[in-house]
Structures are given as C-alpha cells and as structure tokens.
Amino acid sequence: MKVLIFGAGNLILSDEGFGVHFVKYMEEHYQVPENVELYDGGTLGIMVTHKFEEADKVFLVDIVDAPGNPGDIHRYTKEEIMLNRIPIKMSPHQIGIQEMLFISELRGACPADITFYGIVPASLDAGNKLSPPLQRGLGDIARLLVNELETTDVRIALK
Fold first, then answer.
1. What are the alphabetically sorted keywords of the record (predicted)?
2. pTM for this one?
C-alpha cells in the first residue's frame, strides 16, 4: 500500500503554512518506510493532482476555518470532503483540496481512502513562524496520523 502525506500551505502567511511545516516536522522527527511519501504541496493545488492518484491512502494536512479555538484539530473523511461538508475555503491554495479530488474522480483515479486533518489557525498575518497553538499542533497531528497508520500495519517510528 502506497501512502501519501500531503501538506498544503503558504509559508509566508504564518499559520497558513501549517501543512508545509507539518511535512518538515515529520521529516525531522520520524523515519517513514519506503511506501510512505511525505510531500510538500505548498500552494500548487490542482498542479499536483497526480500525487493523489499515485497513492492508495492519502492524508491531507492544512488549516481549516472550523468552529473551535486555535490549535483545535478536525478530521474529515473523503466523503465529507466530496460532499462539501468541510468549512469554507480560507486561502487561494484551497482550490486544490476539493477540486483536486473531483478531477481525480472524473479521471477514475481518486484513491478511496483519504483523510483530511485540519487545524484551526490563530493568525494569517505575514510571517514565516507558526503561532504557539499550531506549533503544538504539529506533534498532535503527527501522533494522530501515526496511530491511524498503525491500524493498517504501516509503522512510522520516531527518530
């Protein structure tokens, strides 16, 4: 089984860069097996649809405009994403998440197993650092994702 961990975001808008910071966090703190790819999707959106189509299981990591406090984590399934049950778009790159999946569906190549971990941001101001709640969220989402993968016999170890 090929697993894709896809982080989206814009590194120059503080918490907006969370998904990209998350991929870097995983690279620094975890050893991933060969069948797991960590991918910095940045703000590429539909330009990287092919990455989804190459995987059997996809984890998307990004910020989300959802109820709660900064740092609160929300988990969405493919069905919830496809039925537009995730909250409103927050940034230009988010044209990617739903639209990428729709494009893959149209081509008959969308993976069946997709999970979106979204975290509520504290700041979208200019800057390249995460706010403290989102800095803490890096480890929180990493643990959730690693635990979820263990249920499918994919092991990711701490370095």
1. Aspartyl protease, Hydrolase, Protease
2. 0.90
**Contact (CB, 8 A) for 157 and 30:** yes
Q: Around Cβ 76, how many Cβ atoms within 10 Å?
A: 19
What are 9-63's pLDDT values in tens digits? 899 999 999 999 999 999 999 999 999 999 998 877 777 788 888 999 999 999 9
Instruction: Give the position of tokens 């092919």.
Output: 50
Beta-carbon contacts of residue 102 (< 8 Å; ≥ 6 apart): 82
Structural domains of the chain, with CATH: 3-154 (3.40.50.1450)
Q: What is the arrangement of strands in the sheet containing 3-8, beginning at the earlier edge strand?
A: 36-42, 3-8, 57-63, 113-119, 73-77
β partners of residue 37: 4
Quick: pLDDT tens for 73-89.
999 998 888 776 666 55
Identify the residue whose tokens are 């008959």. 108
Give the Å distances, CA to CA, from 104 to 36, 44, 109, 136. Answer: 20, 15, 5, 33
Q: Which of 27, 25, 47 is nearest to 37 (CA)?
A: 27
Q: Say which amino acid occupies 120.
A: V
